[in-house]
Fold this sequence. Notes:
By secondary structure, the protein is mostly helical.
Amino acid sequence: MKYFIFIAAGIVSGFHVYTYGRWLKQQGNTAGAIMTFVLAAAAMILPVYAAVKR
Protein backbone atom coordinates (compact mmCIF):
# COMPACT_ATOMS: atom_id res chain seq x y z
CA MET A 1 0.00 0.00 0.00
CA LYS A 2 2.86 2.34 0.81
CA TYR A 3 4.30 1.98 -2.69
CA PHE A 4 0.95 2.73 -4.29
CA ILE A 5 0.93 6.14 -2.60
CA PHE A 6 4.45 6.89 -3.86
CA ILE A 7 3.57 5.75 -7.38
CA ALA A 8 0.41 7.88 -7.43
CA ALA A 9 2.32 10.91 -6.13
CA GLY A 10 5.00 10.39 -8.77
CA ILE A 11 2.45 10.22 -11.57
CA VAL A 12 0.60 13.32 -10.38
CA SER A 13 3.77 15.37 -9.91
CA GLY A 14 5.21 14.08 -13.18
CA PHE A 15 2.09 15.16 -15.06
CA HIS A 16 2.26 18.60 -13.46
CA VAL A 17 5.91 19.02 -14.44
CA TYR A 18 5.12 17.74 -17.97
CA THR A 19 2.43 20.40 -18.49
CA TYR A 20 4.88 23.05 -17.28
CA GLY A 21 7.41 21.75 -19.81
CA ARG A 22 4.84 22.02 -22.59
CA TRP A 23 4.19 25.62 -21.60
CA LEU A 24 7.92 26.35 -21.62
CA LYS A 25 8.20 24.92 -25.13
CA GLN A 26 5.30 27.07 -26.33
CA GLN A 27 7.06 30.13 -24.90
CA GLY A 28 10.23 29.30 -26.85
CA ASN A 29 12.32 27.95 -23.97
CA THR A 30 13.35 24.65 -25.54
CA ALA A 31 16.26 23.94 -23.19
CA GLY A 32 14.05 24.43 -20.14
CA ALA A 33 11.36 22.23 -21.69
CA ILE A 34 13.81 19.40 -22.29
CA MET A 35 15.02 19.50 -18.70
CA THR A 36 11.48 19.51 -17.34
CA PHE A 37 10.58 16.54 -19.55
CA VAL A 38 13.56 14.65 -18.11
CA LEU A 39 12.45 15.59 -14.58
CA ALA A 40 8.87 14.51 -15.33
CA ALA A 41 10.06 11.15 -16.64
CA ALA A 42 12.18 10.61 -13.54
CA ALA A 43 9.29 11.58 -11.26
CA MET A 44 7.07 8.97 -12.91
CA ILE A 45 9.59 6.17 -13.39
CA LEU A 46 11.60 6.14 -10.15
CA PRO A 47 8.71 5.28 -7.76
CA VAL A 48 7.68 2.39 -10.02
CA TYR A 49 11.29 1.18 -10.22
CA ALA A 50 11.62 1.29 -6.43
CA ALA A 51 8.42 -0.74 -6.00
CA VAL A 52 9.44 -3.34 -8.58
CA LYS A 53 12.98 -3.65 -7.25
CA ARG A 54 11.73 -4.44 -3.76
